[in-house]
Write a structure and sequence with these properties.
Elements (H helix, E strand, L loop, with lengths): L8 H8 L2 H7 L1 H12 L12 E2 L16 E2 L4 H23 L2 H15 L2 H13 L6 H15 L7 H20 L6 H13 L3 H13 L6 H14 L2 H13 L6 H13 L3 H14 L5 H11 L2 H4 L8 H10 L15 E6 L21 H18 L2 H14 L4 E4 H5 L8 H14 L7 E5 H6 L1 H12 L3 E4 L5 H12 L2 E3 L7 H4 L6 H8 E7 L2 E5 L9 E2 L5 E4 L12 E6 L5
Parallel strand pairs: 4-5, 4-7, 5-6, 7-8
Antiparallel strand pairs: 1-2, 3-12, 8-9, 10-11, 11-12
């Protein structure tokens, strides 16, 4: 319904519009037509010159009213033109979806999804014969499939690998001939094809071309060249690719660092081995079984036994450890002789069951926590209703800080199909008893949980009145709320949520895993109820001690039945 100010100039204009036009088109549309076609100023009276108005008359046959009829240049023409444009859009869309180019795209996408290279190549040959114009997407799908088979990712027969390699370069030459501009995906596929042809130099040159063309390389762009040089044992070229990655702001992950570590071991570059272990410590923290095996092979080798300082400055080492936050010094190999290498476990207090050394708890820079809280706020406000989250921040400033934050729904539903309030109450009471201030923890719970069960509502509203329960609004994701509360209060977070979904991936893998390790309290189900599993008093990360020994943790689901495996490597001589 058109909203009209009865006291403004538009009201007089509204009175000028024939009622028959209002009846036919509706108030809103009639007003728009009248204003757009016949009015330059609201102040002057206007008239509709090109509309013939027939007064209403009763149709005796159908008992309906006859309405105004417009000239060809008037309303009917406008409506007809609108309908024609709409039909034209639909016709264009239909024509586009039925075009050979679009149908080829759909078919190639399906081939890519199911790894059907032979069918994709048949479609390609057929399209070229029929004169179908291929675009960037078509070529990228074909090159991806060829690179996939040529590199062996498709786990197919050698014939298909050769087919992918041969046709991949052929298709790329056709793409260049058609003057289709490549993008990052194109270069990455061609780099994989180059390495499949055992030519990592070509793969590296392709990455350099990307940068010169203003196309930012990604980690996957560098991967073929880096891994190709490592497999060939060409350490110097691998280090060159690594340096180029650094210049481009691309950070290697475990597969790349593991490959660099292995090629450094094979080429007897002990200093580079040390560097790669430090980089694994800083960015990966816990390693996969394959990387752990590479590390173990190094410490068991004669080369590892032959390197290391027999004497060192204890004060200098200690200062370096303190300066780095603990758990490493970065000043090179210490000690001499063979290493004693054992796969072992840690006690609850972080004492190695093999060498007896106690692991340390590595500090988190307070500035990093502040920056993380700011990033968390930015992300939450972009995903949630900003006003709701800001209101929560203000509430937290008024009622906080807390010693612990509880993910209410997660705790109440552990080992239970229904919301178990008593289970939640028991955990809250335990945390309150453990608190130095004996204060209740903050409970974060979705508002729908409070309104759902009348029996629970009374108790939950009591917590709410006491200022220890915050009900997140309808339509919100309470994960943002309990995570922000725990980070901003610098306190414990009680939840069994592994925090691995897309939401938490947005937070990155630099600071967040370290924060979670030091702050997350998990719960185990026993016959007597839930048991709180406090964060370990040591950091689960590669650690280098002041005496020169190393402890490397594996990636594992660390539980009571299957403790995490650690690699312990220490010298027989530990003192300078």
């Amino acid at each position: 319904m058109l909203k009209v100010n009865p006291f403004g100039p538009s009201f007089s204009l509204f009175n000028k519009i024939p009622f028959s036009l209002l009846y036919r088109c509706g108030f809103r549309r009639a007003f728009r037509i009248f204003e757009a076609g016949h009015c330059n100023s609201f102040a002057k009276p206007v008239s509709i010159a090109n509309v013939n108005v027939n007064f209403f008359a009763v149709d005796k046959t159908r008992n309906l009213s006859a309405v105004a009829t417009a000239k060809k240049s008037g309303l009917n023409a406008s409506t007809s033109s609108s309908r024609t444009n709409e039909m034209t859009k639909k016709a264009k869309k239909k024509a586009r979806m039925e075009s050979p180019e679009f149908l080829l795209k759909i078919k190639l996408d399906m081939c890519s999804k199911h790894g059907k290279i032979e069918e994709a190549l048949r479609l390609y040959d057929e399209s070229i014969s029929n004169g179908v114009s291929l675009n960037l997407h078509h070529y990228n799908m074909l090159l991806y499939l060829c690179a996939r088979e040529a590199s062996g990712d498709g786990n197919q027969l050698n014939e298909l690998k050769e087919l992918g390699l041969k046709r991949g370069f052929e298709i790329f030459h056709k793409m260049v001939g058609d003057e289709v501009s490549p993008n990052e995906t194109t270069f990455t596929s061609m780099a994989r094809l180059a390495v499949a042809r055992e030519d990592p130099d070509m793969a590296f040159e392709l990455v350099k071309q990307m940068k010169s063309l203003g196309i930012p390389p990604r980690l996957r762009s560098y991967g073929p060249a880096l891994l190709g040089f490592c497999e060939k044992g060409n350490a110097e070229k691998a280090y060159e690719v690594d340096a180029h990655m650094f210049e481009s702001g691309v950070t290697p992950e475990e597969p790349e660092l593991s490959a660099l570590l292995k090629v450094s071991i094979n080429t007897k570059k002990a200093d580079k081995v040390y560097e790669m272990l430090q980089r694994l410590r800083a960015s990966v923290r816990q390693v996969s079984e394959s990387t752990l095996q590479v590390v173990e092979d190094w410490f068991k080798s004669k080369d590892a036994a032959s390197v290391g300082a027999e004497k060192w400055d204890v004060k200098q080492i200690k200062e370096a450890v303190i300066g780095g936050g603990g758990g490493w010094h970065g000043l090179g190999w210490l000690g001499s002789g063979r290493w004693r290498v054992v796969r072992t476990e840690m006690t609850e207090n972080g004492v190695c069951r093999s060498c007896g050394e106690k692991l340390v708890c590595i500090d988190i820079d307070p500035k990093e926590t502040e920056n993380f809280a700011a990033k968390l706020t930015e992300l939450a406000c972009s995903k949630e209703v900003r006003a709701d989250f800001v209101q929560f921040q203000e509430w937290l400033q008024q009622h906080g800080p807390f010693d612990a934050v509880v993910d209410g729904a997660n705790v109440a539903l552990i080992n239970s199909e229904a919301f178990n309030l008593n289970q939640l109450k028991n955990v809250v009471n335990k945390l309150q008893q453990m608190s130095p201030t004996k204060r209740s923890p903050l409970i974060i719970l979705h508002r729908s949980r409070i309104a759902r069960d009348p029996n629970n509502r009374k108790w939950l509203e009591r917590w709410q009145r006491a200022g220890v329960l915050y009900a997140t609004p309808y339509g919100s994701n309470d994960d943002w709320y309990w995570l922000y509360a725990a980070v901003s209060c610098k306190c414990l977070l009680v939840t069994n949520d592994e925090m691995r979904d897309h939401l938490f991936q947005l937070l990155g893998n630099s600071f967040f895993p370290r924060w979670k390790e030091k702050h997350q309290v998990r719960l185990s189900v026993t016959r007597t109820g839930l048991v709180l599993r406090m964060p370990p008093p040591y950091s689960i990360v590669i650690q280098e001690s002041e005496s020169g020994s190393w402890h490397v943790p594996s990636i594992a689901d660390d539980d009571l039945l299957n403790p995490r495996q650690w690699l312990c490597a220490c010298r027989s001589k530990k003192t300078p």
